[in-house]
Design a protein that fits this description.
InterPro entries: UDP_glucos_trans. This protein has two domains: 5-248, 3-Layer(aba) Sandwich (Rossmann fold); 259-432, Glycogen Phosphorylase B (Rossmann fold), CATH 3.40.50. Helices cover 42% and strands 15% of the residues. The protein is built from 17 helices and 15 strands. The protein has helices at 14-29, 40-50, 79-105, 119-127, 140-147, 149-154, 192-208, 225-230, 259-265, 285-297, 322-326, 338-342, 356-363, 378-388, 405-416, 419-436, 441-454, and strands at 5-9, 33-39, 61-66, 109-115, 131-136, 169-170, 179-180, 214-217, 234-236, 272-276, 302-305, 330-333, 347-352, 369-371, 392-394. α3 (79-105) packs parallel to α4 (119-127), α4 runs parallel beside α7 (192-208) and α10 (285-297) packs across α15 (405-416). The mean pLDDT is 94.
Length: 455
């Protein structure tokens, strides 16, 4: 009997590709055939990053691509332009791919798993009478917030295009992170035009998600009980991490520099500050240098992921003589194998942008956080880390909007000088690990999910 064939289609951003790739690897281990559909642009990046690695075997996940409707030189960070092009071009290309699989391989696609933000893919599945699953790669609280948009409009908290009618704090439910209206996710992305487009995409996703047979989420009930109670249709199957299945993570847009693991081996236990800001964060020169000097002043070993495009001055981003002064105490790399880094016994804390994948990876390794959110849902995740789970600290900006070196150094000392943060983080690690093991809640839901897909 041939294996059930699944098409997985992520939203085209790094933080969305990796967790859906993790889910795809889990499905392959359970006897499914998976065709993973990136955009042409991201497919090239993934293939280049994989160039030095053992390629994924074809009997595992097949990586294919379809166009996103933009020319190669156009800016994919212009979200408005990207969304418009995707809606125009990708549905037709996905249909063609499904037909091609049927004609050329005599193989029928049995299910489409689409990122919840790719509602158009669920519409294609509906039209072609294929099982459909919406995959949510972020916190359940964020999806619950999206589902609550009509209620927020009705209560007069926001208007019809997502603009807050006054500045206030909102609680969607008890024990969920309290949000400032100015931190609502769609207001933390780009300029006003982009914000309105993102808000419209969320409204349209609210409609298309109703087509899905299942809505699965990369989280765990015990991490967000209030959010899952508020929106019981969201089913947790996470944390989806390569380390849980002892596998190799894939889907990265940058080649990982694994030499940093050997450097970590040389450091004392729980001594290293790991600093990484995900795939989107950018710094101006002043802030970048304040962070660099703070790490030097901390007098602790640090591993710092500095993407080639993280700073607007790519020629000389560091303060004069910086690299000579920090010497072997600090290591800067372009991109790191993050799950392996966070699992390393030498890591003391994680200075993070609080993207959801990074948040789960830190929690699952019992590492406390220093939070430096940049955009989108990262402010909501910071609130979980500091206010709900109490496993991290926030930074305060000065009147110029800069986080100064003294503030960074003080918070490092405060976090590492208080054993409670590490103790609470260890408890959450236990919780995150238990839920994906035999008998755990995420594990049970995942087993039911697999049975349904095979039925």
């Amino acid at each position: 009997m041939s294996k059930p064939h699944i098409i997985a289609i992520p939203y085209p951003a790094q933080g969305h590709v990796i967790p859906l790739m993790e889910l795809s690897q889990c499905l392959v281990n359970h006897g499914f055939k998976v065709t993973f559909v990136n955009t042409d642009f991201n497919h090239k990046r993934v293939m280049n990053a994989l160039a030095d690695e053992t390629p994924l075997r074809d009997d595992q996940i097949r990586l294919v691509s379809i166009p996103d409707g933009l020319e190669p030189w156009e800016d994919r960070n212009e979200l408005g332009q990207l969304c418009e092009a995707i809606f125009r071009v990708m549905p037709g290309k996905l249909e063609e791919l499904i037909e091609k699989i049927k004609e050329e391989e005599g193989d029928k696609v049995t299910c489409i798993i689409a990122d919840e933000s790719n509602g158009w893919a669920l519409q294609v599945a509906e039209k072609m009478q294929i099982k459909k699953v919406a995959f949510w790669p972020a916190s359940a609280a964020l999806l619950a917030l999206e589902f609550c948009i009509p209620k927020l409009i009705h209560q007069g908290i926001i208007d019809d295009d997502g603009t807050p009618l006054k500045s206030q704090m909102i609680d969607l439910a008890q024990n969920m992170p309290t949000m400032k209206t100015e931190d609502l996710t769609w207001l933390c992305i780009g300029d006003i035009t982009t914000q309105k487009i993102v808000f419209q995409v969320m409204l349209s996703s609210n409609k298309t998600v109703k087509l899905a047979d299942w809505v699965v989420c990369n989280s765990a009930f015990d991490l967000e009980p209030a959010a899952f109670t508020l929106a019981p249709e969201i089913l947790p199957i996470g944390p989806l991490l390569a380390s849980s299945r002892l596998g190799h993570s894939a889907g990265s847009f940058w080649a990982e520099d694994s030499t940093c693991l050997e450097w970590l081996d040389q450091q004392p236990p729980s001594s290293v500050i790991y600093v990484a800001f995900g795939s989107f964060t950018v710094f101006d020169q002043t802030q970048f240098q304040e962070l660099a000097l703070a790490l030097e002043l901390s007098n602790r070993p640090f591993l710092w992921v500095v993407r080639p495009d993280i700073n607007d001055n790519t020629c000389h981003p560091y303060p004069d003589g910086y690299q000579d002064r920090v010497g072997s105490k600090g290591l800067m790399v372009g991109w790191a194998p993050q799950q392996k880094v966070l699992a390393h016994p030498s890591i003391a804390c994680f200075l993070s942008h609080c993207g959801w994948n990074s948040t789960l990876e830190g929690l699952s390794n019992g590492v406390p956080f220093l939070c430096w959110p940049y955009f989108a849902d990262q402010f909501l995740n910071e609130s979980y880390i500091c206010d709900v789970w109490k496993v991290g600290l926030k930074f305060d900006k000065n009147e110029s909007g800069i986080i100064p070196r003294g503030e960074i150094k003080n918070k490092v000392e405060q976090l590492l000088g208080n054993e409670n943060f590490r103790a609470k983080a260890s408890k959450l690690k236990e919780m995150a690990m238990t839920t994906v093991k035999e008998g755990g809640q995420s594990n049970e839901i995942f087993k039911n999910f697999i049975e349904w897909m095979k039925s």
